[in-house]
């Protein structure tokens, strides 16, 4: 039976580092069959997929394509004599402004798609409040900054703790997310904080999952950590990048309903005589935005909602209960203002 290691992030847990510098390296050296994803940038700063062979897996689990014969197409991408690895943290994220399936439905779809293969899941978790904050910062420029009621993390956190409806970002509920995934797949959990506090152990666990050398993993984790936000007192900075790429996508979507006009637009855009590609890829970075973390009382409320219960059987997933306590994962009593 063909084997798949499904790496689901979580987002903001060194996923980009693993994709770019470990999974792709092992693939290039012939040690694993890596199906992506890896995003890179050309000389004009335009993002492109360096490796996204397994794109069909995410599209199908999100319900964006008919599942039909998808399992057969996935089978054609896999090899028998190597570990097949697919990594895409986006599966776990709710993208504001887009059509999103519930996380439970996406995981169920993954199970259906991959039922003919031997699948194990590798998932890195992060201290719940830090995870919520980092995910908010990532989505701020594209979405939250446009909504006055949610344009700071403090506002978002108050909305979160006072919301009577389900929170869209289901993956922030750490214990529920682990249980959901493990209901369908053999699941190994890693702890993000180990990268800083116990990197050799973290590297060893990744190496075991990939059946590779732990020293290689350790070197990559320590040397190549990407997407680190500049910090400040009690928060981090982020920059909004403005380009005309959104306008290009909008024109493409509108003209797609008119084949002749769409064809003319594509020809003009791709023409070397017109600088349209350079213009749409030109980026301007605005002044950095400072995102302040939640105060202790608000953080306590967030953790009480999203943290892991003291009775959680961490050892079932290869995680130390003591580390979860030390790294402040455990949901406790809410701190009240005096």
Explain how this protein is built.
This protein is α/β, with parallel strands linked by helices and about 350 residues long. About 45% of the residues lie in helices and about 15% in strands. It has a five-stranded parallel sheet with strand order 2-5-1-6-7, with helices on both faces. Strands 8-9-12 form a three-stranded antiparallel sheet, with no helix packed on it. Strands 3-4 form a two-stranded antiparallel ribbon. A hairpin with a 5-residue loop joins strand 3 and strand 4 (about 45-50). The N and C termini lie far apart (about 60 Å).
Distance N terminus to C terminus? 60 Å
The fold-level CATH name of the largest domain is: Rossmann fold
Strand percentage lies at 5-15%
Structural domain count: 2
Average pLDDT number: 88
Main sheet overview? 5 strands, parallel
- Overall body shape: globular
Query: Assembly type of the shown chains?
Result: single chain
Strand order of the largest sheet: 2-5-1-6-7
Which features does this protein show?
338 residues, alpha/beta, Rossmann fold, 5-stranded parallel β-sheet, 3-stranded antiparallel β-sheet
Chain-wise SSE layout:
Elements: E1 3-7, H1 15-28, E2 33-34, E3 38-41, E4 47-51, H2 55-61, H3 70-77, E5 84-87, H4 103-113, E6 118-125, H5 128-140, H6 153-162, H7 174-182, E7 186-191, H8 194-197, H9 199-210, H10 214-223, E8 231-232, E9 235-238, E10 241-242, H11 245-255, H12 259-270, H13 276-281, E11 284-285, E12 289-292, H14 296-306, H15 321-326
Parallel strand pairs: 1-5, 1-6, 2-5, 6-7
Antiparallel strand pairs: 3-4, 8-9, 9-12, 10-11
């Amino acid at each position: 039976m063909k084997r798949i290691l499904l790496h689901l992030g979580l987002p903001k847990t060194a996923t980009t580092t693993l994709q770019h510098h470990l999974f792709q390296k092992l693939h290039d050296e012939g040690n694993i069959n890596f199906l992506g994803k890896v995003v890179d940038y050309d000389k004009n700063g335009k993002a492109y997929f360096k490796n996204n062979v397994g794109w069909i897996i995410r599209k199908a689990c999100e319900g964006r394509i008919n599942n039909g014969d998808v399992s057969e197409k996935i089978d054609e991408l896999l090899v028998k004599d190597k570990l097949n690895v697919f990594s895409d943290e986006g599966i776990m994220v709710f993208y504001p402004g887009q059509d999103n399936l519930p996380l439970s439905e996406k995981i169920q779809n993954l199970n259906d798609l991959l039922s003919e293969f031997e699948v194990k899941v590798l998932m890195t978790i992060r201290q719940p409040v830090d995870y919520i904050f980092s995910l908010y910062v990532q989505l701020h420029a594209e979405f939250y900054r446009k909504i006055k009621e949610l344009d700071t993390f403090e506002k978002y956190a108050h909305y979160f703790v006072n919301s009577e409806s389900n929170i869209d970002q289901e993956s922030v509920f750490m214990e529920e997310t682990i249980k959901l995934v493990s209901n369908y797949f053999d699941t190994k959990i890693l702890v993000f904080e180990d990268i800083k506090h116990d990197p050799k152990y973290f590297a060893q666990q990744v190496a075991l999952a990939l059946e590779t050398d732990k020293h290689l993993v350790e070197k990559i984790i320590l040397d190549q950590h990407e997407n680190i936000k500049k910090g400040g007192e009690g928060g981090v900075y982020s920059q909004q990048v403005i380009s005309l790429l959104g306008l290009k996508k909008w024109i493409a979507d509108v003209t797609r309903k008119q084949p002749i006009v769409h064809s003319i637009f594509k020809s003009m855009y791709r023409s070397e005589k017109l600088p349209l590609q350079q213009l749409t890829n030109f980026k301007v970075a605005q002044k950095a935005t400072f995102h302040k973390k939640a105060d202790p009382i608000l953080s306590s409320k967030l953790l009480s909602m999203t943290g892991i219960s003291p009775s959680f059987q961490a050892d079932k997933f290869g995680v130390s209960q003591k580390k979860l306590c030390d790294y402040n994962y455990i949901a406790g009593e809410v701190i009240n203002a005096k």
